[in-house]
Amino acid sequence: MNTIRTNILASVTFAMAMFSPHTPALAQNSDVSRDAKSNLSKRDNEEKIRLTRASAFYWRVTFNNPPLNIIGPSEVNELTRILGQIEADPDVKVVVIDSAVPGYFVAHYDLLKPLEESTGMKPGPTGMHPVPDFMVRLSRLKAVTIALIRGRASGIGSEIALAADMRFASREMAVLSQFEVGAGFVPGGGPMARLPRLVGRGRAIEILLGADGFNGELAERYGYVNRTLPDAELDDFVDALAMRIASFDKEAIADTKRLVDLASLPPDTEMQQGWEAFITSVQRPAAQARVKALVNHGLQKAGDLERNLGDYTARFGQ
Questions:
Q1: Measured distance CA(213)–CA(183) in Å, rounded
Q2: How far apart are CA 266 and CA 135, in angstroms?
Q3: Where do the H-state alpha helices sit in the chain?
Q4: What pLDDT is stored for residue 207 in this prediction?
Q5: Phi/psi of residue 52, nearest 5 degrees
């Protein structure tokens, strides 16, 4: 029975996969050594997610995967590698998470990849799948984490922002959303566990089931972000706050954050349940059909659909 279940899982892909290109030439070239492939893949990931040490105490993690900052299994692996560096460093006190791609913090999870690439990932140190594992470990870092949101933060982009300790957004350019229910599946990175504690039950349900975008002003009003600032002032504000916190005693920061975590973070089990619900839901025929329709209209390509994902998911529902 387990063999049958494994074979079924291995054969299932997101609807998007049937439209994706064939296996990259690198994987087909038998003359390229396994080590060379690994090194090329590592360099490619490092270009997509940059780690910058502004000082011994203040680091930045920057998404740099144009045109949309899509995150899939390889990017999750790179994020967990970077997270391990942060966890292991005795000096870092503040980490700012931002984007170098105009218009996008992170668009969403990669729906082009075969499903088994996600389901086949090895569990992280918490024992959970690497996606909920990353979200939990990010929230529980001793260092303070700040999401600087300029552009769209949808799906896993919103979930990474929610896992950070603080969120500051561009008043003119930020859009946050959990679009997944509109596309027929359940969010997988834990927003059901985090949003009710952050914005209240009613607003959490509106965000998750309305599945539409929240501009900076409305996100601030709901408590989805700490505050918004004029776009021209956002970088300086976050930088000044990060440097201010980085100047304080590390043990005082860590102890205070730990006690706030006790009062506010969801149990880890809630995060894993969200991921499992996501994996189950994306295999349903309704989700496959909706994602296929989105693919046909430009999902994961720069253009109108990704800029207005909430509008398109509602249109296909009708």
A1: 14
A2: 11
A3: 2-11, 25-28, 34-48, 73-88, 115-119, 130-139, 156-163, 191-199, 201-210, 216-222, 231-246, 250-264, 268-281, 285-296, 304-307, 309-317
A4: 98
A5: -120, 130
Average pLDDT, the chain: 88
Token code pair at residue 44: 């490619």
Q: Tell whether the torsion through CA atoms of 95, 99, 105 and 108 is positive or negative.
A: negative
Q: How many residues does the chain have?
A: 318
The torsion angle over the Cα atoms of residues 66, 69, 74 and 78, rounded to 10 degrees, is: 100
Residue 133 φ then ψ, to 5°: -60, -45
Residue 268, phi-psi category: left (phi > 0), alpha (psi -120 to 50), beta (remainder): alpha
Whether the pLDDT of residue 9 is over 90: the answer is no
Cβ atoms of 206 and 196 within 8 Å: the answer is no
C-alpha angle 290-291-297 in degrees, rounded to nearest 5: 95
Q: At what angle do helices 268-281 and 191-199 cross, to 10 degrees?
A: 130
Residues 92 and 59 sit within 8 Å (Cβ to Cβ): yes
> 207 and 214 in contact (C-beta within 8 Å)?
yes
Report the predicted TM-score, pTM, of the whole model to 2 decimal places. 0.86
Instruction: Compute the distance between CA of residue 57 and CA of residue 242 in angstroms, rounded to an integer.
Output: 9
Contact 186, 180 (CB under 8 A): yes
How many Å apart are CA 44 and CA 42, to the nearest integer? 5
Residue 317: pLDDT band with limits 50, 70, 90: low
* pLDDT reported for residue 66: 97
